[in-house]
Structure formats: C-alpha cells, structure tokens
Amino acid sequence: MISTLNNLNLRSKTDQIISTALMSIYLILMIQYFILSFFALSGTYMQLIIQNASKIIVGILYVIALPKTFKRRPMLFITTFIFALIIYILQYLIFPSNRELLESAIFNVFFISLPAFIYTLNLKDYNIFKSTMIKVGNLVFIIGILYSSLILVGVISSHEHYMSFSYYMLLPAILYLDRMIDKFTIKYLLLTSISFIIILALGARGPFIGIFLFIFLKNLKKIQKINFRNILFYSLIGLFFVTFLLFYEYILTSLDMFLKNFGLHSRSIELVLNGNVTTNTRTQIYYTALESLMNKPLFGWGLMGDRIAVGRMDYIHNFFLEILVSFGVILGSLLITSFVFVLVLSLIQQKRLSYDILIIWLSIGFTHLMVSGSYLIDFRFWIFFGILIKSLDTKKFISSNNNYY
Predict the structure, then answer these.
(1) Cβ partners under 8 Å of residue 328, min gap 6
(2) Every domain of the chain and the residues it spans
(3) What predicted TM-score, i.e. pTM, was given to this entire model?
C-alpha cells in the first residue's frame, strides 16, 4: 500500500515537472513580449539579450525535466531523436539549396519542438497537465490585461507583433471558454468576453478560427446531454450570435471609434468592416506555393524548402500546403491523409478529459497554422501533435482515463 502511494506521488511529481516545462514557454514568451513592448526594445541589441535569456530559462526547465522524462520512457526518447536526426540529415544531403535554412532551424527543431513533442508523449496525468495550463493561462491573462491597460493610457505607444500577442491571449481565452461551457457562470462569461475583446481589438483574426472550432467541437460532445442548463446556455449563445450578426457593423464601428480615441488601430476590425476576410498577401503566397509545387510535384522542395518555393524566404502560412510543397504530392498527400485520419479517430474515441485536452490544443496549437507560421518551429503544434499521437496508445490511454472520473 505504501509502495503504491509512493509510486503515485512520484508519478504526480514527474507529471508536474513535465507540465511546468511544457507550459513555461507560453508564460516566458508573454513576459518577454511585455518587456520588449514596455521598454520599446524591439530592434535594439537588448532584444537579442532578452530573447537569449528567455531561451536559457526555458532550457533550464527543460533540463530539469529531462532525467524524469528519459527515465519514464528511455527508448521513446532515443528512437524519436535518432529518427528525427536521420530525416534532417537526409533532407540536408538531398536538398543542398535548403541547407542554410535547415542550419538556422536546428535549435528550434531539436531543442524546443522535438523535446516538447517527447515530453508531451510522457505525460500520464492530464489532470495535472490541465491544472498547470490553467495556472499559466491565468498569468498570461493578467499580463495581457496589464499590457492592454498600458496601451489604453498611452504608457505603451508601440504595439508591434500584434499577431504573436493575440495567439498568446488565445490560451486563457480558450481555457475560460472551456470552463464557461462546462459550467456557465458570470465570472467566466466576463473573463471570456474580456479575452475576446482584447484579441479583436489588439490582435489578429487568426485566433478566432481556433475559438469557433473549439466552440463547435466542445458542444458537439456535450449536445448529447439535454437538460435545462444546456438549453439555457445554448439559447444565450444563439441570442449572442444573432445579435452580433444583426448589429455587427454598429458594434465593430463603435469599438473601432473607441480604440481610435486612444490612438489605436485594429487591423482585424478594419478588414471585417471592409469585407476582407483574407489578405491579398496570403492569397498570393498560396498561389505561388501551388505553382512551385507543380514545378516539383514528385519529391517537393524538401524540408524548409517552402521558404524558397514562395520566393520570399517566408513561411507558406498554411500547414497542408507546407507539407505538400516540402514532401511532394505523393508523400505529402499520404502524410496529410494519415494526419486527418488519426485526428478524426481521436476526436471520436476519446473520453471527456482527454477529448477536452485534445480540442484545446487543436484550437491553440494547430488552427493558427492554417493562416500563419510553420509547424516545424512552433512548440504549440508539437505539444498538440504529442497529444494526438498519445491518443493512439489506446490501452494506456483508456486505463489512465479511468482514473480521472
């Protein structure tokens, strides 16, 4: 009995260490963003110093979690790194034009993304992981509120990299929304609304893809339970959307005027009011990517080659296009089909807590890749991908879920 309790305590401690290492990146990036904005350090030598300091802090937390992770599943750790290294070396040898890009991404791929994937695979208690997510989400929300307030009063005058800020705020927004759907309260309605307003006013449009997807998937699982509380909640949500659709021009125009009184400009609001959901820049990148794919349809442009393919040394800003351009039509299509199949299967089979964790990270770790960024160097995607692959471990997954409820 004592031995069993000791094992449980050891497992909980290990999961706490891994969870802290994974979620620390979110918090540190938000703090880094706040410091750079508050002291107007973007573009200065201090920016590089602060960014390197952030990497060191994350690295220390990763190193602390390393022995525990390795001890839990050593063969998984070794084989994953060896497999990734072989793929990387082969890509380096086969596509010489991509070598400079591959070299520049080594740190992010092997010291951030890959560890995030392996650490996630080693999680055993999603209750601990979600608890850590909520704590970090609360801290990110507080920093976001402070940042937004300082912008409104004019202390922070330069609002750069608004896209990054909005995706950081997506974490608390989704977590509060999750709590509100599970148990509707005025508190979480208020927290969710504030998060949405901040993202809309000071951020990009991309996060709302994740928000709408999360609402759909969360309610898809809950709609089987029909009771008074659910009927009331869905009625209020329906009333909100109908009201917004009827008066969205007035609501957004009023919000836009309010922001302009403080010298702020919301690009997202402007684009929606002008009827532009996508930008010409993104559309042009997609067309260029498709044309480049037709030039090398069999083997593609190689890993990181999408940057060269679009002729801008920039991301394609679309996950599926990046896969196709990198690996060619045949292998790329196979990878995409496998990914979608596993995702759909996981969404169907998972129990409540596992399902909630999956759709939260689908919303904050994948949906943004449809319109921005690159999966290779995005730690959020690799946490999501780790959760997705973990769902294939049916025996361990189901047995671990039995302990949750």
Answers:
(1) 296, 297, 298, 299, 300
(2) 161-276, 278-405
(3) 0.84
End-to-end CA distance of the chain: 21
Q: What b/e readout covers 114-124, taking b as 16+ CB neighbours within 10 angstroms?
A: bbbbbbbbbbb
| Unique residue bearing structure tokens 């394609």 | 316
Neighbours of 337 (CB within 10 A): 10
Task: Give the mean model confidence (pLDDT) for residues 132-158.
Answer: 90
* d(C-alpha 369, C-alpha 351), whole Å: 26
- 32-46, 187-201, 300-314: lowest mean pLDDT where? 300-314
What would the DSSP string read from start to end of 340-375? HHHHHHHHHH--HHHHHHHHHHHHHHTGGGGTSS-G
Neighbours of 377 (CB within 10 A): 17
On average, the pLDDT of the chain sits at 82
Name, in order, each residue with C-beta under 8 angstroms of 219's C-beta and a sequence gap of 6 or more. 181, 234
Collapsed DSSP state (helix, strand, coil) of residue 34: helix
| Angle, helix 126-152 to helix 2-38, in steps of 10 degrees | 20
Instruction: In whole angstroms, give the CA distance from residue 263 to residue 265.
Output: 7
* Distances from the Cα of 185 to the Cα of 190, 214, 232, angstroms: 9, 19, 12
> Residue 151: what residue type?
I
Integer Cα distance of 355 and 357 in angstroms: 6
pLDDT band at 397 (very low <50, low <70, confident <90, very high): very low
The dihedral through the CA atoms of 396, 398, 402, 404 has a sign that is: positive
